[in-house]
Design goal:
Blueprint lengths: L1 E8 L3 H12 L4 E4 L16 H8 L3 H5 L4 E3 L1 E6 L2 E6 L11 E3 L2 H14 L3 E3 L3 E6 L5 E6 L5 E11 L6 H5 L3 E3 L5 E9 L3 H4 L4 E6 L4 E7 L4 E9 H21 L17 E4 L3 E3 L3 E2 L2 E3 L14 H20 L6 H25 L1 H6 L6 H11 L9 H4 L1 H18 L2
Parallel strand pairs: 1-2, 1-10, 2-7, 4-13, 10-19
Antiparallel strand pairs: 3-6, 4-5, 8-9, 9-10, 11-17, 12-15, 12-16, 13-14, 14-15, 18-19
Helix pairs in contact: 1-4, 1-8, 2-8, 8-9, 9-13
This protein binds flavin-adenine dinucleotide.
The site of flavin-adenine dinucleotide has 39 residues, from helix 1, strand 8 and helix 8.
Organism: Dyadobacter arcticus
Pfam family, one: FAD_binding_3
InterPro entries: FAD-bd, FAD/NAD-bd_sf, Flavin-dep_Halogenase_NPB
Length: 411
């Protein structure tokens, strides 16, 4: 039977960041990954704060060699209204740019860099059973031939993303309070990009705040285009090979014909009901990171940054634990990650209930306010000196109310 210090389930951003950090501290780490890489994954627009995590885990240099599309901001558009954020103007001191990436390339780059540090990644190995105890953890996994294996370790980090291995096996998932939404997307040719849009992410709101479109340009001249909306709407758009999706993005007014004659790089894919919560992020011998914890919504592109943030922090806690130091998993891990998630929860709610859009599309938005919101959009949701982080649960609704009153008064 194979024995290592730490087994990480999943080789996505959360898993590779966690494994690379622990390897740097001298542990014997193995990743078990169900798929073979490169594999498609959604989640292509990063936030500047994830650069901090990639740097600390020693993965940034590898990603920097790949010529990914530089992202310096984000634009929100609704009909005639438009608001563009630039991370160089943000309130929090931190990274002012990041990348937009095809996840197949990005995740493979992370995986190869992690292997180069000495981490074993066993691809096409699906974890099927886990037994946890005070001293030793046991994982059963199936390889591509269907052979079963057992590996033991001192600690498990579950970074299995949408696979949610431990939440499923240990009954840790809980439903999300958000209504069930879905997304349909493809990559499209985007030849005359420079005339119609910048290279940053564009978010187009429509359908009375209920639906939106993302356009995420890549460095090879293609662009990821997705539509998010109610589950029923997305199911309808996905029928007959995504016929209505194709028609919509070709004709949608606010896209100004940008994709009218573009070829799709692959048939549209769709994903439904992705928002999910978790009852607990840790237990005896294990911790959850990335999408194995809670996933809110794609609107602010926060998923990968939460994956790298929680991958890094979980690895630091495992390091402490394995050194024999006491770890308060609730306060030192779960509460920290939860705080960040809760900040984004307020902004996601504010997007769909219209408060966030009232603020950013206001006739005049104060520069300081914009810069503070910009730091949230850059992923700096643990900077409590920022009032838009500290008072996240009330500040959007209060400010939106004042703006609506002011705008009505001047009509
Ligand atoms: P993953 O990247 O999912 O990696 C988990 C790995 O675990 C996978 O490789 C999987 O094969 C493996 N695995 C699963 N089960 C098992 C098993 N049983 N055994 C072994 N291995 C297993 N985020 C952004 O940052 N920006 C965006 O623009 C963005 N857009 C999104 C759009 C949509 C429509 C959705 C739904 C999400 C979006 N996200 C975005 C979120 C993003 O997809 C995730 O947050 C991110 O991929 C999570 O990373 P991870 O490392 O936790 O998991």
């Amino acid at each position: 039977m194979q024995m290592v210090d730490v087994v990480v389930i999943g080789a996505g951003p959360a898993g590779t960041v966690a494994a690379s950090y622990l390897k740097k501290q001298g542990y014997n780490v193995t990743i078990l990954e169900k798929e073979t890489f490169p594999r498609f994954q959604i989640g292509e627009s990063l936030l500047p704060n994830c650069m901090t995590h990639l740097e600390e885990s020693g993965l940034l240099d590898a990603v920097a060699t790949r010529n990914f599309q530089k992202k310096t901001g984000a634009a929100f558009i609704k009909g005639e209204k438009r608001c563009e954020f630039f991370f160089s103007e943000q309130y929090t001191k931190g990274w002012t740019w990041t990348w937009q990436v095809k996840r197949a390339d990005f995740d493979q780059t992370l995986a190869e860099a992690t292997q180069a540090k000495g981490v074993d990644i066993n691809f096409e190995c699906e974890v099927t059973r886990v037994t946890c105890g005070p001293e030793q953890q046991e994982l059963e996994y199936k390889d591509k031939e269907g052979n079963e294996h057992v590996i033991t370790c001192k600690f498990i980090i579950d970074s299995s993303g949408y696979g949610r291995v431990l939440p499923r096996l240990f009954d840790l998932s809980k439903p999300s309070a958000f209504s069930p939404r879905g997304a349909i997307f493809s990559h499209l040719e985007d030849k005359d990009r420079s005339e119609k849009a910048s290279n940053n992410i564009f978010v187009h709101s429509f359908d009375d705040n209920k639906s939106w479109i993302w356009a995420i340009p890549f460095s090879d001249g293609s662009t990821s285009v997705g539509i998010v909306g109610d589950k029923e709407k997305i199911m309808d758009m996905a029928e007959n090979g995504g016929e209505k999706y194709k028609e919509f993005i070709r004709k949608f007014d606010d896209l100004n014909g940008r994709f009218e004659n573009s070829e799709l790089k692959f048939e549209p894919r769709h994903i439904l009901g992705y928002s999910i919560g978790v009852k607990k992020m840790y237990g005896e011998g294990f911790v959850l990171s990335g999408n194995s914890t809670e996933f809110l919504d794609p609107i602010f592109s926060s998923g990968v940054t939460f994956a790298t943030a929680s991958g890094l922090l979980s690895a630091k806690m495992v390091d402490k634990h394995l050194k024999g130091e006491a770890v308060d998993w609730k306060t030192e891990y779960e509460d920290v990650i939860q705080k960040g998630i809760d900040v984004f929860r307020s902004y996601v709610s504010g997007w769909y209930n219209g408060d966030f859009q009232t603020i950013v599309f206001a006739r005049d938005i104060h520069e300081d306010i914009k810069n503070q919101i910009c730091s949230v959009l850059a992923g700096y949701v643990w900077d409590h000196s920022n009032p838009f982080v500290r008072k996240h649960d009330t500040i959007l609704s209060t400010l939106a109310k004042v703006i609506r009153m002011k705008e009505q008064a001047t009509l």
